[in-house]
Amino acid sequence: MRKQSEVDNFQGVDHEILENLQTATKVIRNTMGRNGLQTLLVSSVNDSSGVAEAATHIAYLMVQLGQRILLINMDCTMEEHVVSRLQPEKGDKLLKTLAGSPYMSEAIKQTQYDELNYIGIEDVDDKELMDIIDGSNLDSRLNPLRNYFDTIIIIGPDYERYERYSSIFETADSLVTISKDNTSDYRKLRTYLNESDLFKLYSLGVIRHR
Questions:
Q1: Spatial separation of the C-alpha atoms in residues 205 and 18, rounded to whole Å
Q2: Which residue among 13, 42, 89, 157 is buried most deeply as judged by most CB within 10 Å?
């Protein structure tokens, strides 16, 4: 496990934001543990960068708390950003593995951080992404991985980009929502949260992103 001092130096993140994420991560970890939750979706209506930042750092901080983490990116627009942070090994990614292999483990790559593994995503348009996800039975295919990792964290794409988001909600049992402080459309946010309720996701709160 890496030293606590390394948390403060994680890719030059603003210390105040990192401190807030540390507190939130402890709450998330403890709540998931008490309620038997294992697959966390981090998503938003329209804040891809906020989701990528939050999910990546929550994953890293959970490793500091002694967890074995698998981070799965389902947002093509954020792949380069996440890869630059985690520097995973190269190889097959999510969609190729879903389409061509029965074993999700073939897409798992070790990052530069011990106990933090990653599944990246190819650069495809939104329709192709959802067509593959819809036909993949992804939730069931993650079951073997749930026996190996303490927590699976999913970076969800922007809700407003898709007419249907059910296949993404179905992959998780818990949800953290990222919301821009001053530019969120709260009617869309309420629609998003109401739809997530239909899938009985345990809401772990809303994190405001500046």
A1: 17
A2: 42
The Cα–Cα gap between 150 and 158 comes to 26
- Residue 123 covered by a domain: yes
Range of the domain at 187: 38-209
The helix (run of H) or strand (run of E) holding residue 90 is: none
pLDDT tens digits, one per residue of 172-183: 999 999 987 655
Is 171 among the domain residues? yes
State which amino acid sits at residue 202: Y
User: Domain for residue 33, yes or no?
Assistant: no
For 116-144, the DSSP string reads EEEE------HHHHHHHHHTTTHHHHHHH
Alpha-carbon Rg for the chain in angstroms: 16
Q: At what angle do helices 79-86 and 48-64 cross, to 10 degrees?
A: 30
Q: How far apart are CA 52 and CA 48, in angstroms?
A: 6
pTM of the model: 0.91
Q: For residue 163, give the amino acid letter.
A: E
Distances (CA, A) of 38 to 98, 119, 171: 21, 17, 11
Write out the two tokens for 160: 């407003």
The secondary element (H helix, E strand) that includes residue 155 is strand 151-155
Number of structural domains the chain divides into: 1
Whole-number mean pLDDT of the chain?
89
What's phi and psi for 98, nearest 5 deg? Answer: -60, -40
